[in-house]
Design goal:
The chain has about 525 residues and is of the alpha/beta class. It contains 17 helices and 16 strands. Belongs to the glycosyl hydrolase 18 family. Chitinase class V subfamily.
């Protein structure tokens, strides 16, 4: 992870599963304490960073760490009880030699592992994260495989002995699974990572920067037709290597990289440059980019081909992610079936503008379940498909028996179903109330989606279009959720693109909804 130097000028004050994570840089604790984090936008937060001692490989805890780690976990769990707190070990400024030496020996690995688990328990963390930047040799990668295996076994053993929930284990990694650094080929041990690590977080940024000032470049572009240095390539390399998409959590930057243009008239991506631009050594936090755009930017451009943004003014040029590119990247993550995304780093955003852009990040399966619960009378008919078909035939042939036949075939209480189906006014009122208050509290609150005004505005078209056809009830909604989702949710198997829990009954579902839609005059429900 990149550790940004502090600005000399004051800065403005400031989501299987569906992981929406963020790293909190502890060295900025006085300027941006844990209490300043809008935790409702996140499911996982990482304390960055601690490092192992170079001699005994146990985790070093300074007085500052002792103070802020307690504050970090207590604040997160108090403000958002369902969120997970991780302690991240390593970081961009940690010594890769120390981590390499630690991983090379069984005794040093054991000392490191036992110390990390002890620290996590002492300070109330829910998981451990390794940010080794980066394993240098094939032997390092082989040792990393052993480290993850032994770490996982130690975590399981500790949980068995203590009776406490098992700690999670994650890894922040290079954006691609196979890569060259310093002309040395490297490949992560994906088999071990897939087996022993709960999720893997590719750092999908810093593709271009101050190490090459000859031309401007987007440091976190999603696509690049000219090379394989892009987020789409990196994510696909991990998937092809064998990491399940649901275990991938895509990295997003809350900062940009800057260049000084050779000529103001050439100001696009790849324009000639003569050095770094504004900011700290060519790096600018998003909060400062917003200020730059307001005060002196001549152009703010969203580039559709690369899915990135850039701003320029005179010879100053900044490449970064803004709301438009973040939204497109979140769509990409969903389409790929990824486990979620994370931001580096909290405190660099402007009023959580980017952090909240993608926080309404429902996997496909949850979208389907929301739809099904809004049509729960149809969905629950699957268990009595034969009797319903018979009732529908009677209803179609004899309109006077329509409501009676339909109501008697539904697996819901006749008084509830009857009143909702027979009375359009009550149907709209009750279904809206039950869907909005019961279902969303049962499902979305588990995903820690805040019920903000923005969320209600964005979700209202879905609710309004479906409420007219909903005959929900508290008991049946719970049954639907518990049967299809809850177990797999608790076991962290749910992911952004998965819908295998439901797809066995989808064909029947559409047949039923089409038939009932014809009877009630509503047609096929919208997706």
């Amino acid at each position: 992870m990149l550790k940004l130097p502090e600005s000399t000028s004051p800065s403005p004050s400031t989501p299987p599963r569906g992981i929406k994570a963020g790293y909190w840089p502890s060295w900025r604790a006085e300027k941006f304490p844990p209490s300043a984090i809008s935790t409702s936008y996140f499911t996982h937060l990482f304390y960055a960073f601690v490092v192992p001692d170079a001699n005994n490989y146990q985790i070093l805890i300074t007085q500052t760490d002792d103070k802020w780690m307690k504050n970090f976990t207590a604040t997160l769990h108090a403000k958002t009880p369902g969120a997970k707190a991780f302690i991240s070990i390593g970081g961009g400024t940690a010594s890769p030699h120390t981590l390499s030496n630690m991983a090379s020996n069984p005794d040093s690995r054991a000392a490191f592992i036992n110390s990390s688990v002890s620290v996590a328990r002492k300070y109330g963390f829910d998981g451990l994260d390794l940010d080794w930047e980066f394993p240098h040799t094939p032997q390092d990668m082989s040792n990393l495989s052993l480290l993850f295996k032994e770490w996982h076994e130690a975590i399981e053993n500790e949980s068995s002995i203590s009776g406490k929930p098992q700690l999670f284990l994650s890894a922040a990694v290079y954006f691609a699974s196979n890569f060259f650094l310093s002309n040395i080929p490297r490949a992560y041990p994906v088999e071990a990572m897939s087996k022993y690590v709960d999720f893997v977080s590719p750092m999908c940024y810093d593709y271009h920067g101050s190490w090459d000032t000859s031309v401007t470049g987007e440091h976190a572009l999603l696509y690049d037709k000219a090379s394989n240095i892009s987020t789409s390539y990196g994510i696909s390399s991990w998937i092809k290597a064998g990491i399940p998409p649901r275990k991938l959590v895509m990295g997003l930057p809350l900062y940009g990289r800057t260049w000084q243009l050779k000529s103001p008239s050439e100001n696009g991506i790849g324009a000639p440059a003569v050095g770094t631009g504004p900011g700290n050594n060519g790096v600018m936090k998003y909060i400062d980019i917003v200020e730059f755009n307001v005060t002196n930017a001549e152009g703010v451009v969203f580039d559709e081909q690369t899915v990135s943004m850039y701003s320029y003014a005179g010879t100053d040029w900044i490449g970064y992610d803004g709301p438009a590119s973040i939204e497109k990247k979140v769509e990409f993550a969903k389409a790929q079936g990824l486990g979620g995304y994370f931001f580096w780093a909290l405190g660099y955003d402007k009023d959580f503008t980017l952090s909240k852009t993608g926080f309404i990040y429902k996997p496909k399966i949850i979208t389907l379940i929301i739809l099904f619960s809004s049509h729960v009378c149809f969905f629950l008919c699957l268990s009595q498909f034969a009797s319903l078909n018979k009732a529908l035939k009677i209803a179609k042939s004899n309109p006077t028996r329509r409501r009676r036949s339909l109501i008697s075939s539904l697996p819901i209480h006749p008084q509830i179903g009857g009143s909702l189906i027979s009375n359009p006014t009550r149907r709209r009122f009750n279904s809206s109330r039950m869907t909005r208050w019961h279902f969303f509290s049962a499902i979305l609150n588990r995903w820690n989606h805040p019920q903000s005004s923005e969320y209600r505005v964005r979700s209202s078209p879905i609710l309004n279009s479906n409420n007219r056809r909903c005959t929900d009830s508290f008991r049946l909604t719970n049954t639907c959720f518990n049967k299809c989702v809850e177990k797999r949710y608790k076991e962290s198997e749910l992911n952004m693109g998965e819908n295998s829990c439901i797809d066995r009954c989808v064909s029947k579902y559409w047949h039923v909804t089409n038939l009932i839609g014809q009877l009630l005059g509503s047609g096929r429900p919208p997706m």
